[in-house]
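> forwarded from #structure-qc
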């Protein structure tokens, strides 16, 4: 059974929505996303205060970990791990030096992490973490991992024999500071930016190594060359729960926003995390009040939006006030908005999305969106 978001509810099992995808790697969902950051304590405060994440778990010196500190935050089904190195001599510090605050791990929830490792490595993936069993008094977790674009990795997490708060080695994080949630529910998709001519390679990687299917492609004609041009292929697994659009730069009159990302990120990496809400008006009002900065939508965008999307449940005035964009496809409509980059390098940002039937990605908003991104690039002197 499929709900309006195109996400199959787990209790109904792993229904196939995209029959062309292969089933050798059943993915139950996104398990967690780990960011390597310069100061995890302060980053945790930002994601709690501004995004409404809740304190979940902690690992660091006090729990016997000597080389890093990790704070785990939760909202809805989303688990965000913020990790900072405690010494300069560590792969975490190297990652941080090169990329700044960045997504390192996109962890995927599986039933069998050993099999996920074997299936993907047999199909050509580069190993990152051999299957590893971690145990504590709450049971055991098996994790394994493979490399994907740039220095980003996928970790497969098998937690069916685990009852603890997050992973072995983590303690429950009890905090006296608990700002309310903002209505974020789950990760809708995560986008990777790769270099010139690399999109097909990485789309093929997700097809060959993980059995994903190509859901949609956007070429440089869809994404006008007058603006910061890009090409994109959206790859999805069989049950539609995991969607990874892959972007590459395209030649345009101005410098591609993807090229700007790759310059400042110093390589390919995760460009944005799209998180779903069931009440985008509430979510964005809260996030704006808490200091999250969003891309500016040109005021005239709302003059023509009704012609394009027809009748919607929300008041246009409210959407205009909050800068929320709308797009429609054959199956319904969606509401979306993009934050500015959440670190000083113009690299990773978030998208907040509410799907009302639509399973697409807001193609009708690309022009307005890219005008806005282009204005930001001009202000940074990177256009
Ligand atoms: Fe997106």
């Amino acid at each position: 059974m499929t709900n309006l978001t195109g996400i199959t509810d787990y209790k109904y099992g792993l229904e196939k929505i995209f029959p062309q995808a292969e089933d050798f790697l059943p993915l139950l969902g996104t398990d967690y996303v780990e960011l390597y950051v310069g100061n995890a304590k302060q980053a945790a405060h930002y994601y709690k205060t501004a995004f409404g994440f809740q304190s979940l778990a902690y690992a660091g010196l006090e729990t016997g970990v000597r080389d890093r500190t990790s704070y785990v935050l939760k909202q809805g089904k989303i688990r965000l791990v913020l990790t900072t190195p405690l010494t300069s001599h560590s792969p975490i510090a190297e990652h941080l030096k090169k990329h700044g605050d960045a997504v390192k791990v996109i962890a995927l929830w599986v039933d069998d992490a050993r099999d996920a490792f074997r299936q993907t490595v047999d199909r050509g993936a580069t190993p990152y973490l051999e299957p590893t069993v971690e145990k504590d008094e709450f049971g055991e977790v098996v994790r394994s991992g493979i490399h994907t674009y740039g220095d980003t990795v996928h970790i497969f997490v098998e937690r069916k024999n685990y009852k603890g708060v997050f992973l072995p080695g983590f303690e429950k994080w009890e905090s006296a500071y608990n700002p309310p949630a903002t209505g974020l529910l789950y990760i809708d998709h995560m986008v990777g930016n790769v270099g010139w001519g690399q999109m097909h390679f990485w789309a093929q990687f997700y097809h060959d190594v993980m059995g994903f299917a190509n859901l949609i492609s956007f070429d440089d004609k869809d994404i006008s060359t007058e603006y910061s041009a890009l090409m994109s292929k959206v790859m999805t697994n069989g049950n539609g729960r995991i969607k990874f659009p892959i972007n590459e730069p395209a030649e345009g009159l101005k410098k591609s926003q993807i090229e700007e990302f790759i310059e400042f990120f110093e390589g390919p990496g995760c460009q944005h995390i799209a998180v779903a809400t069931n009440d985008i008006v509430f979510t964005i009002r809260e996030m704006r009040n808490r200091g999250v900065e969003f891309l500016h939508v040109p005021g005239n965008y709302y003059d023509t939006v009704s012609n394009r999307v027809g009748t919607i449940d929300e008041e246009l005035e409210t959407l205009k006030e909050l800068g929320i964009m709308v797009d429609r496809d054959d199956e319904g409509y969606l509401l979306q908005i993009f934050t500015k980059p959440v670190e000083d390098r113009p690299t990773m940002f978030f998208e907040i999305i509410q799907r009302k039937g639509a399973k697409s990605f807001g193609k009708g908003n690309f022009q307005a969106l890219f005008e806005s991104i282009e204005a930001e690039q001009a202000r940074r002197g990177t256009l």
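QC bot note: The chain has a mean pLDDT of 91. The first strand starts at residue 29 and ends at 36.
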